[in-house]
Design goal:
Length: 267
Amino acid sequence: MKKITIIGSGNIGLSLAKGLVNKAYCKAENITLTRRNIKLMTEEVAAGFKVSDDNLAAIEGADIVVLGVLPQQLKKVLVQLAPAVNPEKQLFVSVVSGVTCADVRKELGENVQVIRAMPNTAISIGQSMTCIATDSATDENLNEVVTLFETVGAVVTIQEDLMTSATALCACGIAFFLRSIRAASQGGVEIGFHAHDALKMAVQTAKGAADLLLLNETHPETEIDKVTSPKGCTIAGLNEMEHNGFSSSLIKGIKLSAKKAGGLYNE
C-alpha cells in the first residue's frame, strides 16, 4: 500500500485525501497531512490520518508527495524538502498553479519524477475535472497519478504547455459556471420566483444541461437546437444575451485567467 504525504492540506489536499480513502485507494493511516497549525486538524486525526507541521519529516518514507501549497509559498517549501528527497523511490505530484515540472526539479533535483495535476473544488464531492501533465515522468508513474485522481472525478491527460489553460477552464471555471447560475437565479427572482425556489430551479437546470452533454455525448448547439423554435422565446433570450456579450465576456474571462495563472509562481 502506497504511503502518501500531502504538503499543504487545504481544500484540495484534504478532499483528495478523503477521496483516496473513500475509494479504498489506501487507508487513512497511510496518508500524512501537513499544515502549519495542526491544532485545526482534529477531525482528520479522528479519521485516522497522520498529521504533521514538519514538512521535511513528513516526506521521509513517502512514496507519493503531493505539493498543495500556494504558488508564492512553493519555492521556500521545495528548498526545505530537498535534503530529504529520494529520487529513486518518490514521485512528486504538484497541484500548484503556474508551476512547471522543470520548476520543481530545479529545486529538488533533475532526476526527480514530477507530474502536474490541476483539479477543481468539485473534488470535495468526487466530481473534479482534473487535468494531468508531465514532461519526463514514466508511463507507470503517470498511470499511477491518473488512477489516484480518478478516485475524485474525471481525468484528462494533456500536454504540459496547456496546464495554465486547464487552470482557467477547469479550476477557475467552477467560479464562472457558479456565477452564471447565480445570475440565472437572480433573473428568476425578477420574473416572480422566491429566491430559494429560483436558485433550486437554476441549479437543477444547469445540472440537467451538463448531464445532457455528458450522457448523450452531444455538442451544446445540438441540445440548444432542440429548445429553439422559430420566433420562440428561447432564441429571443439567447440572442439578447449574445447582443450583450454573454459568450464574448466568458471567453475573455477565461483568457485573462489563463494569463494570470501562468504568472502566479513568479509574482
